Amino acid sequence: MATVTFRDETATGRTTEEFTLPGLPESITARELVRLRVREEVARFNAAPSTRFTGLVRPVEAETELNGYRTGAKRRIDWEKQADIAERAFRRNGFVLLVGERQVDDLSEVIDLTADPVVSFIKLVPLVGG
Length: 130
Prior knowledge:
With 130 residues, this protein is an alpha+beta fold. Helix content is 24%, strand content 35%.
């Protein structure tokens, strides 16, 4: 079993969020890893709902704000919908996935978590007018 650190970083490498999950399989596909990360962050949010969500992708009907999303009224988020949104965002280059220092380009790629226990997500922001 592997212990993995999930980290959100800015394009300059500054860590904005981080959490660790123990007991993961030693190898996993990038798709399963993204979905696992989303499931965990949504479970944490749903355990203590608030009007602000700081996850990987914007929940449906939430507004983007600095370093997070305003959900309005306290409500539960469906992790499977969020995971589907995250997969689409990955395919559209909405974020970069790094395992150790290596960029993952394909969700079907199998990742050895014992060799690279740090998984970083870098959200990309589209340029205005460009």
